[in-house]
């Protein structure tokens, strides 16, 4: 018996002793989820678990309950477990489950249908509402005790994690990925550091949490640096002209932000974030407002989650994405709450974001999570940053700027060993390789820019978003074309495996052709050796046979030569495709049995929209987005992930 199986039995016993539910108690019957009965192929419906995971709060007698919804592949065991978090702070991770990376999307009737790009086909994935007050997560204290600092948020998450593994002990043997978007850029590094400290105090490796990576999508990681990116990014993308009558006001706001940062650069009285810096994007939205008389009311303001879209003012993205109203309709459908093991009478009605969580989380003790990244990277945990290139509020420039300021592995920013790749996705229906973005990697840190995507990449391109997970899990192929590196992912993992098999077959066929050519040469030599005897004979049959042999030899050699030329040209154009590894192979977890998938809905276009920082061009075309931390409105304390100011 494996040690973790023994530990699983102990955890199961402890769970019973503490009154915790077991995995079977959390099982969700698919027939109770509206819409799933219409799916003809039952094997496409994921295995599901959901409900409240209780754990003790810091106050005596306080019990906190975090809501989770877990999705697993119905037929394949996965050795990887992903925990997903949305941001806000205070925005429900059901955004992720039902609008982005989860197994379902919800239609206008409030019914679920399958998301073809769901991440659960690559790994088990658990969506967690946290901290308390977010989504369906509650506390026994009255009024609810909101967390006021990321240190407390982290302490409570570790309490949840302990109880989770007691209810799901077999998951303790799995490799863990922490993933999320927007304000989760703060959560994830804090959670990762706490897991590392938890493991450091344990000698038995079988009870450690096997954290492998954190995946941050359009994350709010470094408030200062990212705030200073707004004005130059807006100018670069043509969102505001220098001739704008208020441009000097924006420059002044930019300078005020830089000055307040400079005054506290020595760490004295340094704050988590500064109002002067938050003011920049508020003014940017105000000064780019369309005031023309013919402007539609819902198209006067930039959408901060996708600068190619517009919205009403001061919402500026709060009414996006368009499918958002379907989610409360789904949770209000009779029977849904019971199916998810929730008491509709004791939990609040679902709404996307909670104002109380946002206003309470002031982080008076914590520093921004960017300061934790160097030690996380140096510990061997991989950090993958993925960004939709049409996001304004957590834009590419801001992310790359703070990466450039990071010191890890004995060097600041990207080193001269940085690996760069263009990323293409293979559409399984058309078999066309479509440009998806670009990838940069150096010393455990990977940055991925997804073209024509928003703050919520998976909402725009669900299949493509799953490619982010594929890139991390090494479910991609590497092509080297004229010295340039290209990554290739696919909708279906079998497509890549077949592609690799075709490459091997082509190579084997060429070797066979070479062998036959060699044998033909031996035959040719033999025939030439006997040629004098044959030619001296007046026998017509021998003369005819000689002609046939010579014709066969000439044809075989011609075919061999033609095949060799074609193969040479093939290799010249496409050098050997092989499984891509973005880091030193000795440092990666075992991904031997993995492949690739996704991207039918990838929008294509001509390459424009120059990214000056990277010297790259992205395809044109737009989409939508969502979710983040404090950005404009009439109240600077409100979040743009909130659905109610």
From TrEMBL:
Keywords: Apoptosis, Carboxypeptidase, Glycoprotein, Golgi apparatus, Hydrolase, Membrane, Protease, Signal, Transmembrane, Transmembrane helix. Its main location: Golgi. The keyword Nucleotide-binding does not apply. Residues 1-19 form the signal peptide. Its EC number is 3.4.16.-. It is found in: Golgi apparatus, trans-Golgi network membrane. Belongs to the peptidase S10 family. This is Carboxypeptidase.
